[in-house]
Design goal:
alpha/beta; 2 domains; two-stranded parallel ribbon; 7 helices; about 45% helix
């Protein structure tokens, strides 16, 4: 069980759930996951196909209905919704999440490239403007300079905005951002518990080792 590895957060990618079309089954499994998490906060994520997710037999309106039900039942602590979604859907979900004490992560994913620094900064600011509790950006690097752009945008935005930021470059070439992002203002990284949900994710055991080495090294300087 992933919770035995003691992560700070568990993400449930519901778009991988075969019975996602059955709202009762979604809520039932959400309760089971929360119970099995033993107090570890659960992040509920439906990733769309345009941002790297699985194809599901639901319309976007049905997805919103599912997310609202999950919020109303209070079976998770956080939820992820894409900031490029219909603004009316974002507003509905934001209102219900806030009313039920659930944190809202507004996310943006680009599996093709890394936008320029100024565009990345605009994305972070957009998430805050839309009412996110956390802003998340995940992009694909084509060259080492792309990692610098992402980390620079994260650092600058973390100093200017009022919400926590999460950022990462995907794929093998983006791994340094997953390991070092916290130094530049990224509040969280995603690691492998049992199976990766995005390219470049690092096993949780390796992440723990690297963090301990870096944190000790930085304390000693």
């Amino acid at each position: 069980m992933v919770s035995a590895k003691q992560p700070d957060l568990l993400e449930w990618r519901v778009d991988y759930f075969d019975d996602i079309g059955d709202l009762g089954a979604v809520l039932s499994l959400a309760r089971e996951i929360r119970h099995a998490a033993c107090g570890i906060p659960v992040l509920f994520t439906r990733r769309s196909t345009k941002e790297g997710g699985e194809s599901i037999p639901l319309t976007e309106e049905q997805v919103v209905t599912m997310i609202i039900a999950v919020c109303t039942e209070k079976v998770v602590e956080l939820l992820d919704f894409e900031m490029d979604s219909d603004p009316a859907h974002i507003d509905r979900i934001r209102r219900v999440a806030k009313a039920n004490g659930i944190g809202l992560v507004l996310s943006f994913h680009n599996f093709e490239a890394t936008p320029p620094l100024e565009v990345l900064s605009q994305r972070f600011a957009m998430a805050q403007r839309l009412g996110a509790d956390v802003a998340k950006i995940a992009v694909m690097p084509k060259r080492p300079e792309d990692l610098i752009s992402l980390m620079s945008a994260t650092l600058e935005s973390s100093q200017q905005l009022d919400i926590p930021l999460v950022s990462m470059s995907m794929g093998a070439g983006g791994s340094p951002t997953r390991l070092l992002g916290w130094i530049f203002g990224s509040a969280m990284t995603f690691v492998v518990g049992s199976a990766a949900s995005a390219p470049g994710q690092v096993p949780i055991e390796d992440m723990d080792t690297v963090l301990k080495i870096l944190q000790k090294s930085m304390e000693d300087t």
